[in-house]
Amino acid sequence: MSPTENAPRIVLLPGDGVGPEIAAAARSLLAELGDFQLDEHLIGGASIDEHGSALHDDVLEECRSADAVLLCAVGGPKWDTTDPDEPRPEQGLLGLRKGLGLYANLRPVRPIPALVDASPLRPERIEGTDLLVVRELTGGIYFGESGREGDRAHDDCAYTVAEVDRIARTGFESARRRAEGGGRRPKVTSVDKANVLETSRLWREVVGDVAGDYSDVELEHLLVDNAAMQLVSRPAEFDVIVTENLFGDILSDESAMLTGSLGMLPSASLGEGGPGLFEPVHGSAPDIAGQGIANPLATLLSVAMMLRHGLDRPGDADRIDSAVDRVLEHGLRTADLAGGEGTREVGTEEMTRAVIEAL
Ligand code: NAD
Fold first, then answer.
1. Is residue 27 part of a domain?
2. Position 257 pLDDT exceeds 90
3. Is the per-residue pLDDT at 277 higher than 80?
4. Residue 142 a catalytic site member
């Protein structure tokens, strides 16, 4: 059936490696859920091969005018280079983040009951964990001046009040949204290194000011070294973690391991007003590309995040989340997930079909 005129327009960017395989899973799921206009374009290595750059200007324009962008993965050994003049696949991703003004990266971490054995932590330690890492994405050390003079290199870290203010608000708003429906008091843990860094002292000050507008949300401040420790010793105590770009990069990967599998983790990147970018956390997995064994669940859960945060369809998002839970409870596993008694190994297509049937 062709989409209707008012159908939300989604730009789908399959990218490289397992990207096209998991894009097919997303396409099937969206077809089942109903009325969407899907436009597909190249990004990453595939775009370098065709256009000589990882993100063509026309594709960025298409993304800007869409309601949401769903990206699968970019990169692979074919395009690995240390020559600064050669295009690299990840420039496509960075170009999208910048071009769409995406300053907030959201990564939920919710260990799935059926996969509790896949976590490197003991089950009793991760029990009850349900947290969200909100990472600032367009400021800090990754975007500061950098350079080399002789035997010295430097990377500058800077933040403005406005940059901290808006990401703090994303954190508080997310905590409020997660608490809707009751059950828990919303809490924000702001992570910094205020005992050493001036940017962190500014961060702590501004987050404290923003908290004044959210008296219903509890605020705690943690130093990043302590936060890294607490994440593995008492993960269930966290609700929303809000932090700057570099700390967020590291802590979100650490939190990711609580679930035990990269193939399970979705993410959302949001900006002001324009479309959000939704993508699995994992890369293009070139070692298993083309074999039909990639885990599609991180991508299907990214579709759920897109429906929840980008297209205002929280009901459909919940349906996907619980369909994924049910399929895993029934014992289906892709090769990357721990197998064992009562489980059956399936490929990308069968896993996708099972989720669609369980909707
Ligand atoms: P990776 O995430 O691609 O793979 C790490 C390991 O996890 C591999 O063993 C892989 O087979 C496995 N894995 C990842 N996704 C899986 C899935 N859906 N199902 C089953 N197994 C899965 O990370 P890497 O190997 O460090 O990087 C490979 C390429 O991906 C590199 O070119 C890197 O630059 C790129 N990369 C892209 C992104 C992105 O597009 N957002 C993120 C990270 C890495």
1. yes
2. no
3. yes
4. yes
